[in-house]
Amino acid sequence: MAITRILIANRGEIALRIHRAAHEMGIETVAVHSTADADAMHVRLADHAVCIGPPSATDSYLNVANIISAAEVSHADAIHPGYGFLSENAKFAEIVEAHDIAWIGPKPEHIRTMGDKVTAKTTAGDLGLPLVPGSPGAVGSVEEAKKIAAEIGYPVLVKAASGGGGRGMKVVPSEDLLEGLMSQAKSEAKSAFGDDTVYLEKYLGNPRHIEFQVFGDGNGNAIHLGERDCSLQRRHQKVLEEAPSPVLSTEERNRMGQVCADAMAQMGYRGAGTIEFLWENGEFFFIEMNTRLQVEHPVTEAITGVDLVREQIRIAEGRPLSVKQEDIRFEGHAIECRINAEDPFTFAPSPGKVSYYHAAGGMHVRVDSGIYAGYSIPPYYDSMIAKLIVYGRTREGCIMRLKRALDEMVVEGVKTNIPLHQALLAEPDILNGDYSIKWLEAWLAERES
């Protein structure tokens, strides 16, 4: 089927990103928005706009009935969920398809399978992906947990089966602390996700977070588009991402990428997905799969030249992948900085009116953002207001261009974390690519002391 009008069930820079890809394909767009987002850029630029509720995300961007109604009244024949909100909600995907509206995303059953971390881990193992040593599934009792922990060795990690963002996750250094920390993890998981199911994994000492971008056509054909290194994190939230990873060889990239692509082909996966690993001492360990577009997808686009949103739309139309694995070339280096409206070092949110805005520019500099001078950043949603993506022939050249772009980018009226990124790019470890998922929090703690 040919898609003619896409409802974008999201907001901010990703809604604008989807709108641009759709328009370049000759497809109309429908923006949905809360009352707080009535003046948002994606609303201004869309062909049609529908208000779906008050500022609270629960009453607007997470309101399935209102979104479906908006699609029907606007005669949209497809829905793109972006990331966050309902993008990994299998029930929403099923409802969309039940209304004869194309779902620009994976099959609902794959969203459901990979959305439960225990099921995802079992499935990943069955598909040949390397796993972190741990429990084969959910852990039901403290006695069972102690037995498994003794087998894999301390420290271990207790993790919630549902959700993410570090909630319901506890590091257990020794057996005498297991019962108490497991109870805390279950309590947090129940409060945050309505599900207190937990499982155990071996706690890796100093790993990197490396993820592979995959794409499938839903008919048993799949490719990978290389990896992204997302190791600079604070409280399990990514701050800066780059592609390719500074630590992988071409041989490792090709081998693991093919393992991921083969797994998706075997699964019959449809659309975009990201398989996330912890990497340590040359070994990969599967942690989860995101069945959606990632925030950091532009760095992959920069080094491959493939428009991932365009590819998502093509797949949703039932068309084959536009590229074969042998067509993919990894050239140069790209880094993305997440620009947030927050204090750069305390991370306190800083919503408010943007009094002046100047986006960085120049060769191979991309800014994905929906803000403008006079725009009021609402306090109800995620603090990310822009993504600065820079490309260079080499990593060193990319970093130099990124430093220049950060110096050039101006957002006044609110605080942003631009100074944090500037400080990070002055650090020898970052310049050398010598960092892990623990580096940033240790660096921040040292600054505070």
List descriptors.
449 residues; alpha+beta; Rossmann fold; Dna Ligase, domain 1; D-amino Acid Aminotransferase, Chain A, domain 1; 3 domains; 5-stranded parallel beta sheet
Question: Could you explain how this protein is built, in words?
Answer:
The chain contains 15 helices and 20 strands. It is α+β, with helices and mostly antiparallel strands and 449 residues long. The strands form 5 sheets. It has an 8-stranded antiparallel sheet, sandwiched between helices. Helix content is 34%, strand content 26%. The protein folds into 3 domains: 5-104, 3-Layer(aba) Sandwich (Rossmann fold), CATH 3.40.50; 133-202, ATP-grasp fold, A domain (Dna Ligase, domain 1, 2-Layer Sandwich); 208-448, D-amino Acid Aminotransferase, Chain A, domain 1 (2-Layer Sandwich). The chain has helices at residues 12-24, 41-45, 64-73, 90-98, 108-115, 117-126, 142-152, 178-193, 250-267, 297-304, 308-316, 395-408, 418-424, 428-432, 439-448; strands at 5-8, 28-34, 48-53, 78-80, 102-103, 156-160, 169-172, 198-202, 208-217, 222-234, 237-243, 270-280, 283-290, 333-340, 352-353, 356-358, 365-369, 376-377, 384-392, 410-412. The protein is globular and about 60 Å long. Helix 4 (90-98) runs antiparallel to helix 5 (108-115).
